[in-house]
Each structure stands twice: as structure tokens, then as C-alpha cells.
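Continuing the batch. This is chain 6 of the set; chains 1 through 5 are on the previous pages. Same settings as before, nothing changed between runs. Recording input and output for traceability.
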Amino acid sequence: MPDLPDSLNTDNHLLWVLIGVCIAMVLTLDAVQAAVDGAWPHQHRPSQLLPHERTAQSIWAIVALLIIAGGLLLITNLGILLWQDEDYGDSLVLGSILLAVGWVIFLLTSIDSLGIRRYLSSIGPSAPLAVLVVLIAAIVLLVLSLLDIVPPWKDFQDALPIIYAPVQTVAVSMISS
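Output for chain 6:
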């Protein structure tokens, strides 16, 4: 079993960023569910919305999915950076900033008491489309960053001997029979 790298000490700022992003993703999942479906589905009345507000609401659902995808990509990037003890690039930083901007705008619109949702809904689909473009750019940058740092498959096999060994044993026994 490979030794854990020294990067798991508490002085590593990437470890704290990873912990913060993981906590934010857990809280975001609840916010996404509440914003897309509403706290109680029987109180969700799209027929009371104006037509351009209904279009904007459906685009906000796509924005919510992109936030989750971007957050998982960011967690994957940070996990691999910690595991491989590599330096991060500019694409990861810019992708993280764009993801954070989209995430904050989405959270601000999901809080009804601030009145931002009502304002952005009155604009129509242009506001969620702008956030959608920002999140797509963030995801592209995070994927490019992931492609820069992802190790070869052999490193994954060596890092996960407990999970990979039984699967490999079953596959070899199925091929030989």
C-alpha cells in the first residue's frame, strides 16, 4: 500500500480549500433542490409566472446542474493536486473564480427574501443565460486543468489496490474460464 504524501498536513492550503469546497457542495445540493423544485412541490406554481419568467426558471435549473458539475470537477482537481503533490495552473484558478461567481449569483437568486430573484426573473432569460455562459466557461477551464494534471491509469491502480485487486481477480477468472 503506498504511503500517504506529506501534503495531508494542516499547513497545506489546498487541503483547506478542498474541505471548504466539499462543505459548500453539500450545502449547495440542498440549495439547488430548494431553488429548482421549491421547498414544497405543491407550493411550486409555474402557472402564476409570466412567460419570460417561466423560461428563466427552466434555465436556472440548467444552471443548478452546471454548478454541481463544476463543483465536482473542482473537487476532483483539488484531490488530484493533493494526491500528486503538483502545482496548480492558471486555468484552475480562473475556472474556480468563474465557478464561484456563478455559484454566488445562483445562491443570491435562490434566497427569496433579498428580492434579487424577483429582479432577475423580471429581466427574463438573459440573466440566467449569462450565468450559464460563465459556468460553461468555468467547466471548460476546469476540464482543461484536469487534463493537465490527471496521472496515468497505472497510478490510479497502484493507489487503489483494495478496490482494484478484487475486480482484476474476477475479470481474470472470467477470461480464463
